[in-house]
Amino acid sequence: MGAQESGLVETEEQELPSDKVADLVEYIVCGLVDDESSVSLDVTDSENGSLIEVSCSEEDAGRVIGRKGRTIKAIRTLARALGQRVGTSVEVEVVG
């Protein structure tokens, strides 16, 4: 059983704080768009924090950004709040 336990610990240690934030962003974005299969996230980690780039179809990009940018602003607020809880700085950008 010792080998199994150490395998579980290694898997948990490999998950970065930005992965939790990316999961949240992906969950929110997939709930907004019509074509979930076109949604992809590119996470770039650096010393200063993490950049999450959301790619989706052009029709869905308008939904993700929202009227006057309100939806993406709300997504960024949630992502930054979770980022603070897990100890990382986060930026979210939409790539249509």
Automatic annotation (TrEMBL):
Q: Which Pfam families match?
A: KH_KhpA-B (PF13083)
Report keywords, A-Z: Cytoplasm, RNA-binding
Which superkingdom? Answer: Bacteria
The name of this protein is RNA-binding protein KhpA
Locations listed in the record = Cytoplasm
Query: What species does this protein belong to?
Result: Thermophilibacter provencensis
What is the recorded function of this protein according to its Swiss-Prot or TrEMBL entry? A probable RNA-binding protein.
Keyword Cytoplasm among record annotations: yes
Keyword Kinase recorded: no
CDD domains, sorted? KH-II_YlqC-like
